[in-house]
Amino acid sequence: MSNSGVTVTPDCVQKFNELKLGKTIKYIIYKLSDDYKEIVVEDSSTDADWDSFRDKLKNAKAAYKGKEGAGPRYAVYDFEYDLGAGEGTRYVGTSLKRGRLGYGSEESRSADAAPRMTYASSKDALKKALNGIGAEVQANNEEEIEYSAILKDVSKGKR
Question: Measured on CA atoms in the order 122, 123, 124, 130, is the torsion positive or negative?
Answer without folding.
Answer: positive
